[in-house]
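Example (one chain per record):
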Amino acid sequence: MKKSIALFSLLIVLSLVLSACGPRQTPPTDLLSAIKARGYILVSTDPNYEPQSFLNTEGKRPANTKCPGDALTAAEMQGFDVDVAIAVGQALGVETCFATPSWDAITAGNWADKWDVSIGSMTITRERQKVLDFSIPYYYAKAMIAVHKDSGITSIDQLAGQALCVGTATTYETWLNGQDLGFPPTSIYAQPPANVTVFAVETDQECAQALAAGRKDFIGYVTSETVVDANIEAGMPVTKLATVFAEELAAAFDKASSLSTETLRAEVNKIFEAMHNDGRLSQLSIKWFGVDLTQPPQ
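Predicted structure:
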């Protein structure tokens, strides 16, 4: 009898222990599942690339955010790319958080799982596709040369032997260096000026900001037409010179991710398709750029 009672008591204790432990949870095997489990998506973007993405100086970090301490919340960022990223997070049912690594670190791939996806106006290129996977394009833009308004420059030919500023590891730097972008010939509108000196900085906006501050290291810069428009609207002393190529902008995913990104990329494609179809991307483009850039240029 005592043995039966002891055995019964042991079974009860074991049952309580197993109940307390609960079922074992299988670790996520894909990035989308991991994102949904933790409740936030970490998006890399540029904090100095107005109007695509820039800091919201009046934004306050929510007390109940799930974002890591070294990441920015949606309240602390603003811009077209930021709004697109927020829409992706909402569609996934998670909070959108932002990491701000350097652009060359993003385009180089091998992110070491430090962020989940880039939604930062990245152009699809053959070289980048070696280390990154891309979504469908969510908008289209044109690259442009802008110069100081007092430069006296009126044609690309006059830039021969001059210095031009670009963001490092950008398509603009690739074009200025005379390297193949891998674009269709119809997307290239001009060849780079002869014997140009390339002045590379961390992000495109620093070019216009340097000219506005009176720097003389270069006479102009190459960037997206959307950035030049924002510079002019902000009163910077620059003027448009020439459109040089067209580019497709997409979300990017690291091929070296420790978790599969296939399901996340498929989901982002569905979200972008829905936003194209219901006009949300067009509305965001008009809000930030003043024009709908969500259709391929003609």
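Caption: The first helix runs from residue 2 to 21.
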